[in-house]
Amino acid sequence: MRKSLRSSVLTFLPYCLLLVACRPADRAPSALNIWLDSNEKEMKFFKTVARSFERQHPQIKVKLRFMPFSDLKPRYSGEAREPGAPELIYLMNDWVGELAQQKLLKPLNQNLDQFVPFSRQGLSYQGQSYAMPFVFQVAALIRNTRLHPKASSDWKTFPPKAGNYPLMYDNRNFYFHALFFHAFGGTLFDAKGQLTLKREPLLASIRFALALEKNGRVPPKSSASATLNLFSAGQTAQIISGPWSLAAPQENKVSLAVSTLPPISATQVPRPFIGIKGFGLNPWGKASDAAEKWLAFVAQQEVQALALRELDNLPVLASLYQSHSLAEHQRQFYQQAQMGVPMPNSPLMKYVWQEMNWLLGQAFESPEKLEALTDQALKRLYEEAHQSADLAA
């Protein structure tokens, strides 16, 4: 009898141990790896969001990996299929086409109707959504109200004044120049994603930018760093920039206001690029269920409202913009976005940035060669487009 009882206990014991080991409370948390760029405010913000997420989902441990913005896309492209790759990448919308073409983004099934339309558009490629929108950024007109009390109604109200510059922006950067390019009728791609960049609108827009500098409305060498430094020091009346540029002048007690960009003419309205940041799913990631829970969590109104309070960029939840709690500068940036153009996410955008930035830099150095320089840039760009089409085929 004792032998039989001992045998039964020994037989039953492994099953007990197995049941104990399999209890949900004893399982090690699954890891959710997210790669992000190392923007200081976003680092602090997402650490807070991650802790809140973990309280709601104690079986998921969020591992945030921050890296320089310039490193994020190439690192992800090279390591997305490797062990330890992230389940989610916090990306810019102009990366989407390139990463989707490389099969490094998983199409989303979530309903995105609660987000502002341009954010959904900017993260879609060939009719498919590839990332959950989270925030957006757009350039508008920021002015020192002591030097320029009223918003400018046209581009003639940027006269040179002694002691300060009337207007500054990074005029050798196509991200900012695009608002003029679009105003003069320029387009980059058609509805099918084919390159449609034409010579005449591009030339007209660059001539307009050159005239701003020649007439003394924009000083020479108006780079991004010079723009922010001089505006923060109270030496520039107005700048063209985005919400990321407000912190430094506010710290320096500059009294400022934001307004939409004035029209060039009745039919020529500046249309700046809209940059959209969101979360893309890695199809090779191991914790897809945890990643889906994160996407649902950051889409909640509480998280979006926190982003409105804590981040420079603006959240994409449409209902927030029906609220009266928006700061006036946030409302103005949102209004500017209604006239903006989501940055195209064609895989060709890397060549567009390369050639257009080269062209602007050369044009300001040698304006007399503008037409020849434009022809060179367009020739190279269309050659890259044809080569890319041949490779895709």
Describe the protein in words:
- The structure is a single chain.
- The protein is of the alpha/beta class and 393 residues long.
- It folds into two domains: 24-133 and 276-308, Periplasmic binding protein-like II (D-Maltodextrin-Binding Protein, domain 2); 140-271 and 348-392, Periplasmic binding protein-like II (D-Maltodextrin-Binding Protein, domain 2), CATH 3.40.190.10.
- It contains 14 helices and twelve strands.
- It has helices at 2-21, 40-56, 69-79, 96-101, 117-122, 174-183, 199-214, 224-232, 247-251, 288-298, 301-310, 328-337, 349-365, 370-392; strands at residues 30-37, 60-67, 88-92, 124-125, 128-129, 132-138, 140-144, 238-241, 256-259, 273-281, 314-315, 341-342.
- The strands form three sheets. Strands 1, 2, 3, 6, 10, 11 and 12 form a seven-stranded mixed sheet that branches.
- Strand 1, helix 2 (40-56) and strand 2 form a beta-alpha-beta unit.
- It is globular, with a radius of gyration of 26 Å.
- The protein starts with a helix and ends with a helix.
